Amino acid sequence: MRRITVAIDGYSSSGKSTMARELARRVGYVYVDSGAMYRAVTLYALEHGLIHNNTIDREGLIKLLDNIRINFAPAGEDGTQHTLLNGRDVEREIRDMQVSSMVSPIAEIKEVREHLVRLQQELGKEKGIIMDGRDIGTTVFPDAEMKVFVDASADVRAHRRQKEMEVRGEKVKYEDILENIKNRDHIDSTRAISPLRKAQDAHVLNNDNLDHTQQMEWLINLFNVITHE
Questions:
Q1: Which residue of 39, 59, 131, 132 lies most exposed, with the fewest beta carbons within 10 A?
Q2: How far is the C-alpha of 74 from the C-alpha of 4, rounded, in Å?
Q3: pTM of the model
Q4: How far apart are CA 152 and CA 149, in angstroms?
């Protein structure tokens, strides 16, 4: 079985990170959550006063990019791979609504994307990696042997996101989550730098009506076909 690069792209809260994480665990690959990297930069900007009234101090953030170190800790007892920002576990903080509302504008910044794409490409040099995000199959790993584009309706994604937040004890209105998702879809799909789009050679998975087991069966079957070609 040959080792490959797996690129999984899709809309916010489409379930791509959950699938990518489990696939990596099952096949023994390294998993990288590229979205968490952008969220970590967003959290850094918020904590360092670089965002005021939803306006980003772009020049200030660009100057500090080299001070931002992002790593991933192995999965702990909760089964989740945690994101480290300058050595601090920020997995919980980067998932809140304040970060969610600003991550797409942060990801629009050309210098931020270039900085993180370089880090992501460095992580994938040795193959045996699964990365999910918005532009993995089109920009980060255009030559990836396996590309998947995950699609789902905004309503379904908003309900999923609400359930995730409720599990963490956060109470957020469904309408606010839906608005946030629609705004992120628009920004991600229309930005000038590396917009969210399906790679021409990507396999499309619409999971509106699929449960987690069905999604994983589809993904693993595709992985086995490609790695045995």
A1: 59
A2: 21
A3: 0.80
A4: 10
